[in-house]
Amino acid sequence: MAIKRKISEQDGAAAVAAIRRVFEEAEGSTGTAEARFATLPRATRATAVRFLLEELAALAPGNSVEVRVPPFGVTQCIAGPRHTRGTPPNVVETDAFTWCAVALGFSSWAESAAKISASGSRSDLSERMPLL
């Protein structure tokens, strides 16, 4: 079943392009990239995060893992047992900067592990990254 996107391809691509430029301009300096990321408009950061979450849900459909990137978005993905009440058994949570870095391939899952809270047997998304 295909997911219903809330972010248009055009808006998502524009926001992701802005995020990608931040990482490319600060190549090799995580602190600089994080500082530049924080100066982007909130709407750009939010759109990019949500678009990348939608992309993950499209590439790995399902409801067994919940991926949270507060305060911008959440999605469910990965085929398996569906969870409907309370805290799901498989949860991934991280900040927007780390999510974008890993989803776009500027950092690996392993390199960012300290900033990613992943619980449950299905929560390792390393094989699904980068998304774009």
UniProtKB/TrEMBL annotation:
Source organism: Rothia aerolata
Protein known as: Bacterial SCP orthologue domain-containing protein
Domain called Bacterial SCP orthologue: residue spans: 42-131
InterPro entries according to UniProt: SCP_3
Pfam family, one: SCP_3
